[in-house]
Design a protein that fits this description.
The protein is α/β, with parallel strands linked by helices and 732 residues long. Helix 9 packs across helix 25 and helix 16 runs parallel beside helix 24. The longest helix has 32 residues. It is globular and about 95 Å long.
């Protein structure tokens, strides 16, 4: 029989079923290898203790401290009416502060014997407040006794690893379990090719695992960390490089626009010249479309940088070359809007085959889930006959019924709202794989693009078209300074008085049933009120500060026809103020709208606020964005809003956003709620490692696409790309 390799040994065999069950359920650890890759979050030096002075509230903490005082009190209670209840109060200190520990009832006996003044121990528990003082109730603890042969010096200097723990399993119990399996680290297969490892002076993997879990010096930790970061970056980049390599082997039809065709006619109609950025990015796209393997390109551009124009010219080039192009939008409002603006931009070129249509024109059809049966039948017919060169739609485009004559290009708008499976289903509609252009207006820092969209080539549009106006942003502290909020509504009235329009954005709709079972977030509890709702706010504004103005509402649960009618009235200038949810976040283009008030702005993410703000200042008049919040000045939420108000640079904001949220799992595990696959690598801080790993991975895959010479790397890749992730990347 085959022996199971040491690192694949299930934990229940090594640690026993009870501990293994907790590790599997709470930490997602199943094998010896999983446990070895559960790295310490930080290290305590026994000489340098955690500062009790700055303990966080309501978090599980581990502190190393000395018992200063221990007192046993008796008291009367309902369970012990004769004054026989016992409470042990222990005060611990670390030189910087003091902390009270309390134990009750039968739980007092063991600590009463063990926690004598002068004893040092590690304590773990959740910090709470009692009588305005911090305390740990019934903390778990581990006495720190130096063995006789351990001299005081080595004992004080030892680094104690503190592991990411849960209430069910304290850090030192995880530490003990790791000590049990640590000898197996010697058998870890090293995924890095020897030349790469030696060339970069990285320690072998078994040594890195020993040093990360049992370091003797800080230098050991640094060696281990830099090695383990390289592993994560390199294995991930090899996975992506193999995707790119496989894609490059796929056949596709080269699509070159014909001279004096549809594209030329369109360019001749344009009332403005394209920006340098648009011209450069268009050239990159046209070069890709002219090759015989599928383009995979990510087009990221600041809000309003003219991505739609670039995408439309790519679609026209494909129609010119005899193919069809499909544009996929995340919402019906956006699909309708794209359809409207593309038909407007193309004029008679969008009326191919109709009276008054241009000779080299084509049909541009819309396909959404809520269309009437007759319109839908006609659209499907136009697609299958090839009459329609361009189709714009929601995921209704992906349904089985939809057939294309010859699908040559798929443009996906706002990738982050679009599942990988959906992209894949649409791709399967071509006779050969169509070219793919993915657009996003959420600026992505370069390293994140390299990790998340590493199988796509990236183009960036960072110039705004001429004539776009600056947007002034201000935080409105409604709780500290209510008169600021009153002034905000005056500013809206002033903008309307100048003939402009305004948006008011709220976090929720307001017709939701309050679900008693639904858990409230800590913020909601703290606020003691639910987030502001569109329907309530619209009503208050229409009767109060914006009385006399045309106020309408827009949200995701309205009937699509009603939504469309509201958007048309707003676009035509018939409505002064639109009170909406984030349905307006992407793609809504009303150049006359100059002001936006975002209510409860602290409840939106940084990138989302930036996206919303991009809906104003789209014309020649300057834009104004007011971020209304009730959060106190010192809170992290306020700092976040100050950051948004301070810069219009989306790339800068996306860095801030990531630093605050951490990366989540770049391999899409975030979608399944599983743990992050990046344990050591920080996408923002480790920019250089990721860039270098990408180059090394490309070289390795080019030389040996199947990794025949590198079996250990193959094994690491298989571990990273378990079924779910393999599919995620496959469909990337």
């Amino acid at each position: 029989m085959d022996l199971v390799p040491a690192l694949e040994e299930p934990l229940k065999k090594v640690l026993g079923p009870a501990t293994a069950k907790v590790m599997a359920e709470h930490l997602g650890l199943h094998t010896v290898g999983d446990l070895l890759h559960h790295y310490p979050r930080r290290y305590e030096e026994r000489g340098q203790l955690t500062h009790l002075a700055d303990l966080p509230m309501d978090e599980h903490v581990t502190v190393v401290a000395m018992v200063a005082d221990a007192r046993l009190h008796t008291f009367a209670s309902s369970k012990a009416p004769r004054g026989q209840g016992q409470r042990l109060e222990v005060t611990i200190t670390d030189g910087s502060g003091r902390l009270q520990l309390v134990f009750f009832g039968k739980g007092v006996h063991k600590p009463h014997k063990e926690l004598l003044p002068g004893t040092r121990a590690m304590f773990a528990g959740k910090v709470s407040v009692f009588n305005r003082r911090l305390q740990l109730a019934h903390p778990a603890y581990e006495l720190l006794r130096g063995d006789a042969e351990e001299t005081v010096e080595t004992w004080a200097g030892a680094l104690i690893p503190i592991y990411p723990a849960t209430a069910k399993l304290e850090s030192w119990k995880i530490g003990k379990a790791i000590q049990t399996v640590l000898p197996s680290a010697q058998e870890a297969l090293d995924p890095l090719p020897d030349t790469l490892r030696e060339g970069r002076g990285l320690v072998p993997l078994p040594e890195a695992l020993l040093k990360i879990h049992r370091p003797h010096t800080k230098a050991d930790i640094a060696d281990a960390r830099s090695r383990l970061k390289w592993d994560e970056a390199f294995v991930l980049q090899v996975a992506l490089a193999r995707r790119r390599h496989a894609d490059a082997q796929l056949p596709a039809v080269a699509r070159k626009p014909k001279p004096a065709g549809l594209l030329t006619a369109f360019d001749d109609r344009l009332p403005f010249t394209l920006t340098e950025g648009q011209q450069k990015v268009s050239k990159e796209i046209f070069d890709d479309l002219a090759t015989e393997h599928p383009m995979h390109r990510l087009l990221q551009g600041e809000v309003g940088s003219g991505k739609t124009m670039v995408a439309l010219r790519a679609m026209l080039a494909v129609v010119d070359a005899g193919g069809q192009a499909a544009m996929l939008a995340p919402t019906e409002v956006l699909a309708q809007q794209h359809h409207r603006s593309i038909v407007e931009m193309m004029g008679e070129l969008a009326e191919g085959g109709m009276l008054g249509g241009a000779d080299q024109g084509t049909k541009v059809v819309l396909l959404t889930g809520s269309m009437g049966a007759a319109a839908r039948r006609q659209a499907l017919l136009d697609l299958v006959t090839g009459e329609a060169g361009i189709v714009i739609g929601t995921h209704a485009l992906i349904e089985d019924k939809v057939r294309f004559h010859d699908l040559g290009l798929v443009v996906v708008d706002e990738q982050h709202r679009f599942g990988v499976e959906q992209r894949d289903a649409l791709r399967g509609k071509g006779k050969q794989p169509p070219h793919l252009l993915v657009m996003t207006a959420t600026p992505i820092p370069r390293t994140v693009a390299m990790t998340v969209f590493g199988d796509l080539e990236t183009s960036v549009l960072d110039q705004l078209p001429a004539g776009r106006s600056p947007i002034a942003s201000h935080v409105v502290p409604a709780a500290d300074k209510p008169h600021f909020l009153a002034r905000a509504w005056e500013r809206v009235r002033e903008e309307v008085g100048k003939g402009h329009q305004a948006y008011v954005v709220c976090p929720r709709i307001g017709d939701e049933e309050d679900d008693p079972k639904k858990k409230k977030s800590p913020e909601d509890e703290a606020e003691k009120r639910p987030p502001l709702a569109v329907l309530d706010v619209a009503d208050q504004l229409a009767k109060g500060p914006l009385q006399g103005l045309g106020v309408e509402v827009l949200h995701g649960r309205m009937h699509p026809d009603d939504k469309d009618a509201v958007m048309r009235r707003f676009a035509a200038g018939e409505t002064h103020v639109l009170v909406a949810t984030t349905v307006i976040e992407v793609g809504v283009n009303v150049p006359n709208a100059t002001a936006m008030v975002i209510m409860d702005a602290d409840r939106f993410g940084v990138s989302q606020l930036h996206q919303l703000r991009g809906r104003v200042g789209r014309g020649s008049a300057p834009g104004l964005c007011l971020l209304v919040t009730e959060m106190p000045e010192a809170s992290p939420a306020r700092q976040r809003l100050n950051a948004v108000a301070a810069t219009l640079d989306g790339f800068e904001l996306s860095r801030i956003d990531l630093e605050q949220r951490r990366e989540g799992d770049v391999l899409g595990q975030a979608q399944s709620g599983a743990r992050t696959s990046l344990r050591m690598l920080a996408v923002i801080e480790d920019e250089e490692i990721i860039a270098e790993a990408r180059d090394e991975a490309a070289a390795v895959v080019a030389a040996d696409p199947d990794l025949k010479q590198l079996p250990a790397l193959r094994t690491a890749l298989d571990a990273l790309l378990d079924e779910e992730r393999e599919q995620y990347l496959e469909k990337g």
